[in-house]
Write a structure and sequence with these properties.
Blueprint: H1 2-23, H2 29-46, H3 57-77, E1 84-92, H4 101-125, H5 130-133, H6 135-140, H7 154-160, H8 163-171, H9 182-198, H10 202-217, E2 220-226, H11 242-274, H12 280-283, H13 290-295, H14 298-305, H15 307-316, H16 343-346, E3 366-367, E4 371-372, H17 379-406, H18 412-424, H19 437-449
Antiparallel strand pairs: 1-2, 3-4
Helix pairs in contact: 1-2, 1-3, 3-15, 3-17, 4-7, 8-9, 8-10, 8-19, 10-11, 10-18, 18-19
Length: 467
């Protein structure tokens, strides 16, 4: 049943991608990449390399409703090219700098002071040597019932959220007025990666790398150009050689994508080994196929696929009890499924609302044949408002991500903001990073520092509609 449903949903996503590409080749890219991520996850899931618990058709229909809502809303946001001729040309856009060196150095100072306070907290409570010799014990040992980050000052924890956006800024040469040299930028990228690994949080580094990939993927405009004469012209503007531009674009993107994937896999394996997350729990069950066990990739397979059966089981769960209070180092296992009426989505903000019970962003583990506590990005909308929450959330994400992508060249703020939103689509089969403090700190930072930026310039900026 699971494999059949996974293949049916995959086919629907393929059809939706083809339809969207026919409407608008350039603007449909967020939709297509969202669908590609889900396709990869569902096709892996359909292999049954791990025998997850079977799920009902009702649960699958809830998931399909969210996916369809995203696709429909995204297509609604797509402009229909009128009076245009198709062109395979790729237009490289020149982007205005995001910030000055002074602002960048100030942001770095805030981040590294925050990181220093974090290291002091680790040294005071565990010993700095433990960070290198046994980092898994830091996350496992509770501090009076609180996590290892709890004694880092609140403002310092906020400053640490600048890590991903700073990494992307150093990775992108044109992001800074008077660009920094390649050696300086490379060293800073490596240092920032090391600090994020030292915080024992793989997802922070993933967000940075995916944001950089989204930024790179958004740099080029592809599709149709207006046939209507512009400013007295009687023909289309002269275009560079499409073949050479396409070749350069593909080569640049492939290098960036390959580098990003390599870093992601290495960081995933390195940090997983350091924290003791090697997939042994899955291997201790009888659910892992011999082929997957022999490959040594069971841990990656679990992280790539387990959120789907977990969400399906969450939909099926009749357990409306709230989970018990979490104690660091101890796992809570159960199909807890209370309706939270907005509390799960608002997350940490609820601690500032008197009388409102807070939902812990670290969810209880669900047994789906193996243990997992990630439920795709539909978890919080479903916990809050069930099926309507899933549909509304997916519709908003589909429309906003597509509309922002289409308007990305209007300003530096819009370009960087849309690439941040775009990057969250890559994790949609895992978690909703758009609801986290680290996402919003990065987003607000790029918007604030670019407030005085002019419109992004383009070689063909006098073409009114390049959709």
């Amino acid at each position: 049943m699971n494999s059949t449903w996974a293949l049916v949903v995959s086919l629907i996503l393929i059809v939706a991608s083809v339809l969207a590409r026919g409407i608008n080749r350039d603007g449909s890219r967020p939709l297509i990449w969202h669908n590609n991520v889900w396709l990869a996850t569902l096709l892996l899931y359909a292999t049954n390399l791990i025998a997850y618990d079977s799920s009902s058709s009702t649960a699958w229909l809830v998931l399909l409703s969210g996916l369809l809502a995203f696709n429909v809303a995204s297509m609604v946001a797509l402009p229909r090219p009128r009076n245009s001729v198709f062109s395979a040309d790729v237009e490289t856009v020149t982007l205005k700098p995001l910030l000055s060196r002074r602002v960048l150095f100030l942001a770095c100072a805030i981040y590294f002071v925050s990181f220093g306070l974090y290291l002091y907290n680790i040294h005071s409570n565990y010993g700095i040597g433990v960070l290198f010799s046994d980092p898994g014990s830091i996350r496992a040992i509770s501090l009076d019932g609180e996590s290892y980050l709890s004694r880092t000052p609140q403002l310092a924890r906020l400053g640490l959220n600048l890590g991903p956006v700073l990494l992307v800024i150093f990775a992108v040469r044109e992001s800074v007025q008077r660009p920094l040299g390649l050696l300086t930028r490379s060293v800073m990228v490596l240092i920032l990666m090391a600090t994020m690994l030292a915080m024992l949080q793989r997802t922070n580094l993933f967000m940075a790398i995916l944001w950089y990939l989204a930024y790179t993927m958004s740099r080029h405009h592809i599709g149709s150009v207006e046939k209507t004469p512009v400013r007295g012209r009687s023909s289309l503007p002269a275009k560079p050689n499409p073949a050479s531009i396409n070749a350069r674009r593909k080569k640049g993107f492939m290098v960036a994508a390959a580098g990003g994937v390599i870093v992601l896999v290495l960081a995933f394996q390195l940090m997983g080994s350091a924290l003791g997350k090697t997939g042994q729990q899955a291997l201790s069950t009888d659910r892992v196929s011999p082929e997957l066990e022999a490959s040594g990739l069971s841990n990656i397979y679990v992280y790539a696929t387990a959120a789907v059966p977990a969400f399906l089981k969450l939909v099926e769960s009749p357990n409306e009890q709230w989970p018990p209070e979490r104690v660091p180092g101890q796992q809570i296992v159960g199909d807890y499924n209370p309706q939270t009426y907005g509390v799960a989505t608002l997350g940490p903000l609820t601690e500032f609302v008197p009388g409102v019970r807070e939902w812990n962003p670290i969810a209880p583990f669900m047994n789906v044949g193996i243990l997992t506590n990630v439920f795709t990005w539909y978890e919080h909308p479903y916990r809050d408002f069930r099926l309507p929450g899933v549909v509304i959330f997916a519709s908003i994400m589909g429309f906003v991500s597509t509309r922002m992508f289409i308007d990305r060249f209007k300003s530096a703020q819009m370009y960087w903001a849309q690439s941040a939103v775009f990057s969250t689509l890559f994790l949609s089969t895992f978690v909703a990073k758009i609801g986290t403090a680290i996402f919003w700190v990065g987003l607000l930072f790029v918007v604030v520092v670019a407030l005085r930026s002019r419109k992004v310039s383009s070689p063909h900026s006098d073409i009114p509609d390049r959709s």
